[in-house]
Amino acid sequence: MMDSKKVLDTILAIGKRIEEEKDFLTELDNVIGDGDHGINMARGFHMVAEKLAPLEGKDIGTLLKTTGMTLVSTVGGASGPLYGTAFMKAGMVMAGKEEMSLTDFFACMDAAIEGVKMRGKGDKGEKTMLDAMIPALDAMKSSADGGAGAKEVLKAGVQSAKEGVEYTKTIIATKGRASYVGERSIGHQDPGATSFTDMLEVICQAL
Amino acid sequence: MVGIVIVSHSAMLAQGVVDLTRMMAADCPIAAAGGLDDGSFGTSYEKIMNAIEDVHGPDGVAVLMDMGSAVMTTEMVLEDLPYTDVKMVDCPIAEGAVAATIASVGRLDLDSVIADALAAKDMQKF
Known about the structure:
The complex is a heterodimer of chains A (207) and B (126). By secondary structure, chain A is mainly alpha-helical. Chain A is 70% helix and 2% strand.
């Protein structure tokens, strides 16, 4: 599916996409959170680009782990430890590997989801990024089981993640800062589910 | 004495809590880890790490956090530090800090300092 050069380019492309979506993500977070998601993520990925530049040619595990550690130390909001843990867990799956297969990608997503659940002590149905991540991975696995190629599989994942974002509009936030807003969070989509969907879309476009 | 660290999204709040504890426990080793380096709101892995190192001694450290990323980032710092005597306390940050620092200068051990800070959770104000 991707060699280490492609993984590096894709992480940088994710950073660009986050930069483009910065204001929108922050606007979403202004309504139900503490209004810093886009700004924080853009700051984190800006630093990721700097840290990854000298790592061209390194194994995928190192790239993902560096991305995660950089997000933890530079984002400053909840998305730092959450996405940071996700990338670091994926990095452990890919330690020493130069090539990522679709099966590897699923293993990375599994590890990332477990990491986010553990770090945030959350699960799906609580209006968080998990409401996009979990259905996206399920959809990708069934698409692959049906014999689809990587691009098709990722498309199915993006579609499902987008539905997950729509679903977050219908439920009350019970985790994170949005839980303070309670019932008034209904009707608003979750910023974390949105940024995850942006990332998956970039991965899909890279294939 | 048990060291105390105050983690908050706000640099002023973290420093304010530290200042507040000086009223009754001026000698307690306590450090603030508030906000990001550029002065904006958020929690900094590096600031938390440095604050713990600053106050860490033979009696250990109790860390009090406000919420969200303050809790999660502290968790990650603790996972990365080699110490087993640095503990997070789930208590109100200002009242808990006052209780914890008084216990610390009273030479109570880490578990007792934590118990006093936790008691702040149920303290009736009126």
